[in-house]
Automatic annotation (TrEMBL):
It comes from Rhizobium herbae. The chain crosses the membrane at residues 73-94, 106-125, 137-160, 181-203, 241-259. SUPFAM superfamilies: MetI-like (SSF161098). Pfam families: BPD_transp_1. The keyword Cell membrane applies. It is found in: Cell membrane. It is a multi-pass membrane protein. This is Carbohydrate ABC transporter permease. Belongs to the binding-protein-dependent transport system permease family. InterPro entries: MetI-like, MetI-like_sf. Residues 69-260 form the ABC transmembrane type-1 domain. The keyword Transport applies. Keywords: Cell membrane, Membrane, Transmembrane, Transmembrane helix, Transport.
Amino acid sequence: MSMRNREWPVALALVPVLVLVLAPFAWLLVSSLKSEAEIGRADPFEWPAELMWQNYLDAWQIGGFGELVGNSFFNVAGVVILMLVTCAPAGYALSKIRFPGREWMFYALIFGMTIPIQAIVIPLYQVLSGLGLVNSLAGIVLAQVSNGIPFGIFLMRSFFTNVPDELVEAARIDGASHFQILTKIFLPISTPAVMALVIISALSTWNDFFLPLIVLISPDVQTIPLGLVRFAGTYASEYRLVFSGTVISFLPIILLYILTQRRFTEGLTQGAIKG
């Protein structure tokens, strides 16, 4: 049996799973374009007689999604930048620089990945309160960075470990500093890992509900997940608005993943250099 023939049973077995995963999204998209009367009909997948694009405009204006999206973009940008600035140098140091306690530091990092954020949310809140960063976008950025740093360093270290040590030794002989080696050699060849870190950080930050719920209080600084819950609670009977607002909330991050999925897969499955 050829390899192509062997793949057919697996593909057929995945079809029901694909339908199960995509059905709720299809129902949500179709319902968001219906009138209020059409949403209550028996067939949830029935195509509307007229596409109600006005639902999205109404939801955007009534729910204040412009401000929510702006806050979320600021939050994502801050987290992604800080993750790159901290995780890339730390991953390089743990993989290529020999110093006392390096292995124990790596073990402590792995241990940190096992601790749920709920276990440290009280001391984290106290730290942010002491810094005067509660109920601010800067505070939620720092909180989410502190939660994501262990995985980010682990990802970058795993990728940098595959780079031959001879590259570092040759660069050191030529007089390059570790900072120059990182910026001029490692980062250019680690684009898949960097993209994977960016996408994972952006996805988790955009969808995070727990930390913004703890840190952000005022509606004017809340992100999409908090604003969507508040909007759905206020207009619980206006299904067309709730469905349209839900689509608005996840559409940007879905587009990001679609545009970068190839880099995302490469970053999780490939090393920087083979051999």
